[in-house]
Amino acid sequence: MVDNKMMTRFSFNNLLIFIAAFGAVSAWTRNYRNGGHSNQNAPDNVWKWECSHEAIRNLTVIPRCKKVHRSEASSKATELSTCKLTCGEASMLFPKPSGKTKLSKKVVPFAPYRVKLSTLKLSKNGKFTRRVNQLIRFAFGSFKRTLHQGVYRQQAYRGWNLQGRTIESSKRSMEISIILETNAEKLTLYTDESYSLKVNTNNRLISVTIKANNFFGARHALETLSQLTAYHQGHNSLQIIDYADIYDKPAYPYRGVLLDTSRNFYSVPSIRRLIKTMSYNKLNTFHWHITDTHSFPIFIKAVPQLTQYGAYSNTRVYTPRQVKQIAEYGRQHGVRVLPEFDQPAHTGEGWQFGEKEGLGKLAVCVNKEPWQKFCLEPPCGQLNPINQNLYHILSKIYKEYFDLFDPDLFHAGGDEINFNCWNTTKEITDWLHTNYGGRNEEEMMRMWNLFLEKSSKKIYEANDGKEIPLILWTSKMTSIKYLNRFLNPKQHIIQIWTSTKK
């Protein structure tokens, strides 16, 4: 599954709208419904809701909850939250499970403080690693907080004892059993995120059984379980479907959202909110476009000059500790953090220190004007592929990236190269004439490929000498003319953001 690079063009306001939209979906999936800001003295609402199967515009019949007046309602009419839980084959589950989905049309009330994790074990009688045990308990704690927040939020609107109504929900408990097959604690492109979820109700006990290959599947199951619950206004309690049998696995192994923190700096709490919102919708990859020509906001201990020259300010920097915390927060929420180090274009601010420290020009055309001649969008800047000192700097960056993120993929950017930038830099054109005998497109492509080979070798060295799949954006390098000539399909993944027709 591919996310679109045009997301890097989002303005600050557009991204806020985007996150708000995700928040709206997550709120929908978690059923944080209130029927209006009524208080405990407000009269009963005159409306009830029925599950309708009428065709919309004479097209496909889509189950939906239809509002009817109490005086005209049938015996099947319910409160809105109950209707939404029981209307349709997949209830309110989002995304819709890909496999077997059997859901009861009956709900039962329960108390969130009577929910406990009764069983946690490996299927082959092994022992959980400490790390996996921590991850599972974090996910379970997050699930319980969701339940409590669902109640407290509603009771804050209406009072703890809505119009004096009480039920026996406090006597019904929920016990959850989680059974895993492995101790896998790292999310990769090949991780099995499938799970099965069964809910059975026997008098005053709701039994939940979750089976998954690993923590990540179990976390998805808890997310689904939370979507099977909702607050019941009339009972002043939570309710859950009394029977469910679900098997689910992702349709795509890569389900990502991209955030650009170079053009616009986002605080760590903002990034955490985005990751948490992604987890509500079972998205698994936070594609972090950290750096670009605009700024270099990630602090590299081995090359501190990059942020000294490249950050918007000393408060607009991600420290190594913060980056590791973000990566861990992602893991806890079933989201891997995939860093992108865009190169050799999209590099400008931060690279100006080379000449002052005797390293030569590490980047060329930085902030050069008129920008239309030297880059596809301002500000301009491209790495200098013939400067051998550049590769020593890249090696230090790569090593810290692997330490901070422990990635299973490495996104190396690689698009929007402006040949005129290189072709108007004397040291580069002299090198081209000396080594390739010219400076036309053919020679430019060979030099670009030489950069890819050298930088890729440094990436593998930073990964303890092991090859790792490299992701590249679509570009001239990935066109039909050059793709098979320069790129090994076993080593590269092409992420499409342009037309696929070329």
TrEMBL record:
Keywords: Glycoprotein, Glycosidase, Hydrolase, Signal
GO MF term (any one): beta-N-acetylglucosaminidase activity
GO annotations of cellular component type: plasma membrane
Residue span, Beta-hexosaminidase eukaryotic type N-terminal domain: 94-228
GO biological process per UniProt: carbohydrate metabolic process; glycosaminoglycan metabolic process
Uppermost EC category: hydrolase
EC number in record: 3.2.1.52
Domain Glycoside hydrolase family 20 catalytic: residue ranges: 252-500
SUPFAM superfamilies: (Trans)glycosidases, beta-N-acetylhexosaminidase-like domain
Known catalytic reactions: Hydrolysis of terminal non-reducing N-acetyl-D-hexosamine residues in N-acetyl-beta-D-hexosaminides
InterPro entries named among the record's database cross-references: Beta_hexosaminidase_sua/sub (IPR025705), GH (IPR017853), Glyco_hydro_20_cat (IPR015883), Hex-like_dom2 (IPR029018), HEX_eukaryotic_N (IPR029019)
Catalytic residues (UniProt): E416
Family: Belongs to the glycosyl hydrolase 20 family.
Name of the protein in its database record: beta-N-acetylhexosaminidase
